[in-house]
Amino acid sequence: MIEIKNLTKKFRDKIAVDNLSLIVRPGVVTGFLGPNGAGKSTTLKMIIGLINPTQGEVKIDGKNYKDLIRPISKIGALIDGDAVNPKFTAKQHLELIATASGISIGRVEEMLKMVGLDKVKNKQIGEFSLGMKQRLGIATALLGDPKTVILDEPFNGLDVDGIHWLRGLTKELAEQGKSVLVSSHLMSEIQAIAERIVVLAQGKLIADMTMEEMTNKSLSTYMKVNSENNRKFKSLLEKEGALIQSMNDEELHVHKLDMKQIGIIARNNNLAIYELTKIQPSLEELFIELTEGKADYVSNVESKERKGDRQ
Amino acid sequence: MRNLIRSEFKKIFFLKSSRIYILTLIVLSLVLGLIFSLTTNVTQGKAITDLSSMDVLSANMLGVDLANIMLIIFTAISISKEFSTKLINVSLVITPNRKKFFLGKIITFFLLSTAISIIVVILAYLASQLILTVNDMPRVTLQDLAVRQFILGVMTMPIFYAIITVAAVFLFNSGAGAITFSLGVMALPALIKMFSNSIQRTLLPVFPQSAIHSLAGVVKKGSGESLGTIASMCLLLAWIIMTSLAANAKFQKQDI
Ligand SMILES: Nc1ncnc2c1ncn2[C@@H]1O[C@H](COP(=O)(O)OP(=O)(O)O)[C@@H](O)[C@H]1O
Ligand SMILES: [Mg+2]
Predict the structure, then answer these.
(1) CB within 8 A of B72, min separation 6: which ones?
(2) C-alpha separations of B209 from A98, A229, B65, B74, B96 in Å
(3) Which among B3, B6, B256 has CB closest to A51?
(4) Whose CA is nearest to atom 7 of ligand 1?
(5) Whether the predicted pLDDT of A257 surpasses 60
(6) Which one of A272, A304, B210, B249 is CB 3.0 to 4.6 Å from A228, fit for a cystine?
(7) Which of A52, A82, A86 comes nearest B253 by C-beta?
(8) Is the CB of A36 under 6 A from ligand 1?
(9) Is the CB of residue A16 below 6 angstroms from any atom belonging to ligand 1?
(10) pLDDT at A243
(11) ipTM (interface pTM)
């Protein structure tokens, strides 16, 4: 389990990560979302000790990453697929890491097969496409069979096949009981795999909740209503606490009331309803809405704990 | 630590360019030594047969200076490459303890430079024996204390400079910076020798060259460079410790 407490990183006058606290739990894929420059990479690098925090700390099973006995068995990380010497072959690259951490060469071969690079293992990495480098980076991250897998923008450069493969892989890893933390600036990449979403913007935690919770809580969820007398219906709904955002002759956009409540109000007032539809934004829209700073979605600690227990 | 050093050696020798460079370094230093010892009539204005056997040996050992410079460049470039390619990201995820990582680099390049230094010095020694034999001159012998001291002293040079170059790469965070530093430390004494005697006497003993020359026994008694054996070794160690401490302190704080 990774515990991030009040983590802050300042680069000269720029605050890249701002008082971030969160817990990464095992057995789940956590999506770590935020627009470019949100501070995702900086956070991930602080977890594995590449960047020193200005304030706060990260504990891995209660210890600093730098103090772990066999760090590679605790955390495997893909930070940058390009972080390779292009003159090495894929096999040599993995062999260096295996050697340094006392892992057998057999495991290297196994990983090369798993990420689909065994045919090109003796080619220099310089000849690789970005997608192939990402695959090599994923092999690197998984080499030590770590309990936690951190992947920073792993979908970058992957082709359709690769994306499909990686989605399956992350789910599989979570099923094996590992914590999987996958960052992305695109909700679409994450929504199919993540059970939990953490959203960062301008270094601050904006949302930390299950995917389901997130969708439900969106401010943009509303009921599209059309009735025989929209003008009358509008005032009736408002009396019951609805917030009606847009109205023309054709439809009402009703917030804060659910379908059932709206239906009952209509019946009690003898109004015929022509249309009653729940409109949900796509997660991508929701994500954009979140990161534009329209909403504050941090659920309180207790509800987070409950969620943790359920999972 | 054993695994780390093994991995560091693979990092060096997996690369064809490194293997070729090191081989070239060894061959060139031998050739340069031979050239120096065979062209004494041009460089020193004396025919080889007019020289002492020790002079022939030391002419051959001039090749070690070239090996030293090439090794400084090699050390600086191979370590700074790890930073510039960002491979350091991956290395530090595996070995997050930076003190250990830094020490691993120091030990690796200590072992590498020791091996290269021994090879280069032995080749220079054998070459001088060959030249002495061909010219019907008395051969030098390792039973001679002066010869032994000379050879060991020369041998320390590439090892010492390789180690401070490792530290310098971390300290300056740049290969070029490290090369400038190490070559500067090497070359400054020559510059200082152009100044007055009193300046020489205060400055020269601070530089590692005086220690290396003293260890090799090639210093004229009473010159500014003259140091005792213990003092020489302490001076070299002090350089290594100071640069390493500074480099390690810098590296600990550095964001990668
Ligand atoms: N080494 C650095 N020096 C100065 N600013 C940095 C450095 N690294 C990142 N930043 C800044 O910190 C912010 C967060 O960057 P980053 O963590 O890379 O965001 P993300 O990965 O979410 O795109 C950005 O504004 C970036 O410019
Ligand atoms: Mg990033």
Answers:
(1) B161, B162, B165, B178, B179, B182, B183, B186
(2) 40, 98, 12, 20, 35
(3) B256
(4) A11
(5) yes
(6) A272
(7) A52
(8) yes
(9) yes
(10) 84
(11) 0.89
Nearest CA to ligand 1 atom 24: A37
- B92, B103, B213 from B99: Cα distances, Å: 11, 6, 32
B81 C-alpha to center of ligand 2: Å?
22
CB contact under 8 A, A71 and B4: no
Does CATH number 3.40.50.300 belong to domain A2-210? yes
Q: Distances from the Cα of B27 to the Cαs of B9, B56, B111, B160, B232, in angstroms?
A: 21, 19, 20, 21, 30
Rounded distance between C-alpha atoms, residue A96 and residue B189, angstroms? 40
Instruction: Parse chain A into domains and list their residue ranges.
Output: 2-210, 222-279
- Closest ligand to residue A39's CA: 1
Instruction: Establish, for the pair of chains A and B, how many residue pairs have beta carbons separated by less than 8 Å.
Output: 82
**DSSP SS3 for A244:** strand
C-beta atoms of B94 and A97 within 8 A? yes
- 0.90 surpassed by pTM: no
The full DSSP string for A124-152 is: BGGG--HHHHHHHHHHHHHTT--SEEEEE
CATH number for A222-279: choose from 3.30.1890, 3.30.1490, 3.30.70, 3.30.750: 3.30.70
Output the pLDDT for position A216.
67
Cα–Cα distance, A3 to A95 (Å, whole number)? 31
Which residues of chain A lie closer than 8 angstroms to B81, CB-CB? 85
Q: Is there an atom of ligand 1 within 6 Å of A52 CB?
A: no
What's the CA-to-centroid distance between B22 and ligand 2, angstroms?
Answer: 38
Q: Which residues pair with A225 in a beta bridge?
A: A252, A276
For A147-170, write each residue's pLDDT tens digit. Answer: 999 999 999 889 899 999 999 999
